[in-house]
Structure formats: C-alpha cells, structure tokens
Design goal:
This protein is mainly α and 306 residues long. The chain has a single domain, classed as Orthogonal Bundle (ABC transporter involved in vitamin B12 uptake, BtuC), CATH 1.10.3470. 71% of the residues lie in helices and 2% in strands. It is built from 15 helices and two strands. Strands 1-2 form a two-stranded antiparallel sheet. Helix 6 packs across helix 7. The mean pLDDT is 88.
C-alpha cells in the first residue's frame, strides 16, 4: 500500500491536464470543428497562470487568467476558421507553433522560480476513510473540477437542448442552418470553451503538477488529448477512462526507475507517445466505428451563402 497509493495519486495528477484538454476538444469537435492547436493553448495557459500567481499570489486569479488565455488563443483560431474560412488543420498547427513561441518569450523571466503549488482540499469525514479517502477526497481544486466537468459535459451534450443543437450542428451544419440556428455562433462558443479548458489544463501543469515554469512544459500533452477524443469515440465518460489510462502510462517511467527496473529512461519516456500511435492505429482500422461515432461535419467548412 505504501507504493500503491502514491502511484495512484501520481496517475491522478498526470491525468488531470489531459482530461481538461480532451473534454474541451471533444465539445469543439462535437460542433464540427477540428482544432489542432491544443498544445499551443495549453502552454499559454501554463505561462499566464504562472505569471499571474507569481505577481498576485492568488491561485484563483491564476486559474481564471489561464482560462482567459486559452479562450483568447482559441478565439484567434475561431476568427480565422469561421470568418475567413481558413483551413482548420494548418490553422490549428500554426496556433500551436505560435503558442509555443509566445509562451517562451513571456516566460523568460520566470525560469528558475518555484511555486508552492495549489492547496490541498480535504472533504470532511470522507477524506478520513482509509485508502479511499486519500485517493478520492483529498486533492486540489482542479482535480475535483476535472471530474465535475466530465459529468457537466455529459449532461450538456445528452440532457440539454443546447447540447442537442450543438450535436446537430456537428452532424449537419447545413440542416442546422436551414432550421434557423446560427452555425457560426454555436461553433465560435464551442471553440472558446475548448480553448478555455485547454488553458485550465495548462494551468494545472504549472501550478500543481510541477509548480514552476519550463519552456514547452506541455511536452506533447496536447497531441495526446487529441488522440484521447478519438480513443473515447467522442464520449465524455470514455475520455475520463482514457485520460487516467494515458496518465498511468505517462508516470510509469518514474515508478519503473524507483523500483530499479533496468529499462533505459529514454524508452520509458516515449511510452505515452508510442501508446498514442498504437491506439490511433487500432481505432483507425475500424472505419465503420469511426463514422458511426464521429460528427459527420467534422473538419468541414461552413459557407452560409451556399
């Protein structure tokens, strides 16, 4: 138990930024938009959150600032894609490159500065339960929020009228437009939500997971979040499962080294990305399953004049 509990706790912390980013991208893709700029939005959320907490000392303001930073980055993508009809794939890639470069510029003076991390919240009574209490009821605010967001997104997509409209836009934007819905507005809001969630995921990296600033500290987590959406077949509940699975693979290298397993650290470091490739290859082999679950208008530009 002395080994198991710390291992499970590190899996939770490793999975949390993936969960935020993947949930945001899931909602974005449900509206029919493919945003490949998650990495850039996450790293901008990380640096803006760290700068904010450094100068204000307020973790709440830092999280809100990261949320706004991610949303602003996604707004740039939304304007280019929805208003100027730029191609979604290269625009998303450009957003990632832009975010990585801008975050490195903004974070030059933050390198080497540490932060004590987000405070731990213990739920009364429940947190005192042996083993289970420490695993489930004793975390920082963002871990609890990430779990709540899974259920919130599930309710929104499958129990609310707005979620039904969003899915209708993603399945057939022309039909939704003919029914009088503003496809551009709905997609714009979905993209903003995806960016905000990616920003919060980045904030978790710099405020809790490793509370300091390092250039490109997202280390490919944005791409893993993209793969998670496909792995989950665009379902929020499966995103939760996938995030914790990939989180476990991510921290496997740390525990393998602690146990003295003689595997080169470079091999262990590449496991999350190797697992991502393997999962995508397996899922892509079943085209019928992808077509059944993916939004029919995903990646397709909408031209209201046509």
């Amino acid at each position: 138990m002395e080994i198991l509990i710390p291992a499970l706790l590190t899996i939770i912390t490793a999975a949390t930024p993936l969960l935020f980013a993947a949930l945001g991208e899931l909602v974005t893709e449900k509206s029919g938009v493919l945003n490949l700029g998650i990495e850039g939005m996450m790293v901008m959320g990380a640096i803006i959150g760290f700068v904010t907490v450094h100068y204000t000392g307020s973790a709440t303001l830092a999280i809100l600032a990261s949320l706004m930073a991610g949303a602003l980055m996604s707004a740039i993508f939304a304007v280019l894609v929805l208003q100027f009809h730029a191609s979604q794939v290269p625009t998303g890639l450009a957003l990632t490159i832009f975010g990585i470069g801008l975050s490195a510029l903004l974070g030059q003076s933050m390198i080497g500065i540490a932060y004590e991390g987000l405070p731990i919240i213990s739920i009364p009574l429940l947190s005192s339960i042996p083993v289970v209490g420490e695993l489930l009821f004793k975390h920082d605010i963002l871990v609890f929020l990430s779990i709540l967001m899974v259920f919130a997104v599930m309710w929104f997509l499958y129990r609310s009228r707005a979620g039904l409209i969003l899915r209708a836009v993603g399945d057939s934007h022309d039909a939704a437009h003919a029914m009088g819905y503003s496809v551009i507005k709905i997609r714009f809001l979905a993209i903003l939500f995806g960016g905000a969630m990616a920003g919060v995921g980045g904030a978790y990296l710099s405020l809790a997971y490793s509370p300091l600033w390092v250039e490109q500290m997202t280390a490919g987590r944005g791409w893993i979040a993209l793969a998670l959406v496909v792995f989950a077949t665009w379902r929020p509940g499966r995103v939760l499962l996938g995030a914790y699975l990939f989180g476990g693979i991510t921290i496997l290298q740390l525990h393998a080294q602690a146990l003295g397993i003689g595997i080169p650290s470079q091999v262990m470091s590449m496991l999350p990305y190797l697992a991502t490739v393997v999962v995508l290859v397996i899922i892509s082999s079943d085209q019928a399953r992808i077509k059944l679950n993916s939004p029919a208008s995903l990646g397709k530009a909408f031209h209201p004049s046509r």
